[in-house]
Design goal:
Blueprint (H helix, E strand, L loop, with lengths): L17 H11 L3 E6 L13 H5 L9 E4 L4 E3 L1 H9 L5 E6 L3 H22 L3 H8 L9 H7 L22 E7 L11 E4 L7 E7 L2 E3 L13 H9 L5 H8 L3 H15 L4 E4 L3 E4 L1
Parallel strand pairs: 2-4, 8-9
Antiparallel strand pairs: 1-4, 2-3, 5-7, 6-10, 9-10
Length: 280
């Protein structure tokens, strides 16, 4: 029976592939077993589950979920709830051969490392370079060039810039890139926020750094961070359409538009969460 305690915040949320976790466990010297067990013999570590999620499950083909050696469910409570609700006699689990407290710590560590690696997977120097170099002439103000190529019903909206406090925000930050800094880059220079093997550490002093945390922005691996900021600053622009019309790369166009807008507002750098910094 699942009780109705709120979900403890320390429980792991495993999104890493099984093979990744198995490899990490092996490297840690921690044993695990893949077993079929009666779900009624397991002890939930959280009480709140979504009945809607359970109702959408194919309970006859549940993916394995994570359990400690002392029968505590660590991650996969909806799958466990689905098995109980539908009176499934056997469910597949992965049993970490540690007590619940230690197994939670290990799984959280593995997941944290996986998320860090995923966040930086797209930050190869080639990717940073591709974000930096513009396809269009640097002689013409970029936002002006965009305005010339808009449809009659389109316009650049500027009201959202008032949401940013443009007072001076001096900050010194350590950032990382493999190649030397490119002087005069129209989109600025991009740096990884966290260390990466083989990358040079740069200590950068900003006179006025824009931290996008002020917008409450969060980032994932689906869209480049600059694209999210562009959605706030230029909500009325279809960059894909404009890029096609100009024969330009959409992301480079976005990066340069963001760069120019930030400079107009008095910023000399943009920090996108814990992912990248755009030095202007």
């Amino acid at each position: 029976m699942i009780d109705h305690r709120y979900k403890p915040p320390h429980l792991p949320q495993i999104t890493a592939p099984y093979a990744y976790v198995f490899k990490a466990l092996k490297e840690e010297g921690i044993k695990y077993l893949i077993q079929d067990v009666n779900p009624k013999k397991l002890k939930p570590s959280q009480g709140v589950v979504s009945l809607d999620k359970i109702s959408e499950m194919d309970v006859n083909h549940l993916k394995p979920y994570w359990v400690s050696e002392d029968d505590c469910v660590l991650d996969g409570h909806h799958r466990h709830g689905g098995a109980l609700t539908n009176d499934i006699p056997k469910t597949k689990i992965i049993r970490i051969m540690l007590p619940a407290k230690d197994a939670i710590r290990v799984l959280n560590k593995i997941q944290d490392i996986y998320e860090y690696q995923q966040a930086h997977e797209g930050l190869s120097q080639d990717t940073l370079n591709n974000m930096e170099d513009g396809d269009l002439s640097a002689d013409v103000p970029f936002l002006q060039m965009i305005e010339y190529n808009l449809e009659p019903h389109q316009e650049i909206l500027h009201s959202d810039t008032e949401r940013v406090d443009t007072k001076s925000n001096k900050k010194k930050i350590s950032a990382y890139r493999k190649n030397e800094i490119k002087e005069g880059s129209t989109a600025g220079n991009f740096f990884a926020v966290k260390p990466i093997d083989g990358y040079i550490k740069y200590d950068i002093e900003f006179n006025n750094l824009l931290d996008t945390n002020e917008f409450g922005l969060t980032y994932n691996n689906e869209d480049p961070p600059t694209k999210k900021l562009a959605g706030i600053w230029f909500p009325n622009l279809d960059f894909e359409q404009i890029a096609q019309r100009l024969g330009a790369d959409e992301l480079k166009l976005i990066n340069r538009a963001v760069s120019e807008k930030a400079r107009q507002m008095g910023f000399d750098g943009i920090k996108y969460g814990d992912i990248i910094i755009q030095g202007l």
